[in-house]
Amino acid sequence: MLSRILRRPTKSKKSSLSAIRVKAGIVSITDSRFDEQFGFTEKDVRELLKIYHLEDHMEEVKEWYDGYRFGDADIYCPWDVINHVDRLCGEPGAQPQSYWLNTSGNELVKRFIDKANKTTRDEIERLIAGEAIEKSVRMELTYDEIDNHIDNLWSVLFTTGYLTQTGRTELGAYKLVIPNKEVREVYKLQIKEWFSHTVLSNTGQLTAFWTAVEKGNTESIEKYLNRTLSNSISVFDTKAPETEKENSYHTFLVGPLAGNSDWLVKSNVEAGEGFADIVVETENPDSGIIFELKYSRDAAGLDKACEKAIAQMKDRRYEEYLKNDGRHDLLFYGVAFYKKRCKVIVEEQKEK
Fold first, then answer.
1. Cα torsion 264, 265, 267, 271: sign
2. Element of type H or E holding 168
3. Are the C-beta atoms of residues 101 and 189 closer than 8 Å to each other?
4. Which of 95, 181, 221, 308 is deepest in the core (most CB within 10 A)?
């Protein structure tokens, strides 16, 4: 049955003469002559799912593997669709996954992020958030030209499927977007790896940050976090629920904290009557640190969000986790984030 889908004939409007002539040239992803031959159309996907009684999975398949634009056709990636259907047949209820990620090092995305300046990093954030970026692209590039300019990498990401287009401007530039959730996860992974490498390589700033955390110096902590946020690429979707945004900031903060090899950093720890966001067991066996993170809907709410975080730690007695380990000199940090800004307050609790 699957082979029948793959052997779809060309559109009737395409003449055999054009099919012959194309052999002498290059068919790019913007060429409409054979656009439906590059992958599965939505009709193909629905038929395939129906064959295997998996119609209920259409929405997730569309979210993860649709979004490519070849010529005038919207196309699903056949490799991903086939792999996901095959997995569902053997494992009902299996969640979608990134098959590109499992078969490729995604070196192009890594090179792109490594070369990005602040303007390009802002454009990457907009792509992650689902926006379109307008760029002129070159369809034919030699391998040696890829790294000559950041614009060349935009072109290569487009022609290799890491970006697709939703139309063109009056001046002929393409409106580029990330095709689907699968490819967005590739970008997020590479951004996280880039962030870890960038942040942890600056040992001088990290050491000062760790010292500030141990001493309760909120001014220095805020300065470091705000500077790092400003120079980083946010990986959360601006349309995501607040809980998902808090998770992204959680990952952001754990990175530099865990870089201290003398600290034991734990996330989402069951403590008291709840779960503490981040618990740090320092080298000093008598001391410990607890962080509670909040996301504010606007900059004006940062102070209130910090106070809410401190109140939550007290009300749910998170300190019991560290006190049971013999640590009684404690610091409670309430940290609130809004876009690329943060606010930090601290309360100290010492054994009398």
1. positive
2. strand 164-168
3. yes
4. 221
Question: What are the tokens at 243?
Answer: 């809980």
Contact between residue 52 and residue 89 where contact means Cβ atoms under 8 Å apart: yes
Q: 223 exposed, middle or buried (CB, 10 Å; 0-12, 13-18, 19+)?
A: middle
Q: Is the dihedral of CA 73, 77, 82, 84 positive or negative?
A: negative
- DSSP letter at 71? T
Closest C-alpha among 268, 302, 313, 262 to residue 284: 262
The rounded distance, in Å, linking the Cα atoms of 6 and 4 is 5
Q: Which residue would you say has higher pLDDT here, 321 or 110?
A: 321
Q: How many CB atoms lie within 10 A of CB 85?
A: 18
Burial of 22 (0-12, 13-18, 19+ CB in 10 A): middle
Q: What are the φ and ψ backbone dihedral angles of 57, each rounded to 5 degrees?
A: -95, 5
Q: Which residue's entry shows tokens 């398949």?
A: 61
Pairwise CA distance, residues 311 & 142, whole Å: 59
Average pLDDT, the chain: 84
d(CA 185, CA 300): 32
Q: What are phi and psi of 280, to 5 degrees?
A: -120, 120
User: Pairing state of beta strands 264-271 and 174-177?
Assistant: unpaired
Over 50: is that where the pLDDT of 349 sits? yes
What's the pTM value of the predicted model, to 2 decimals?
0.71
Q: What is the token pair recorded at 291?
A: 């962080």
Q: Give the model confidence (pLDDT) of 233-283 as tens digits.
A: 877 655 666 767 888 899 899 999 999 999 999 999 999 999 999 999 999
Place of tokens 């000559």: 148
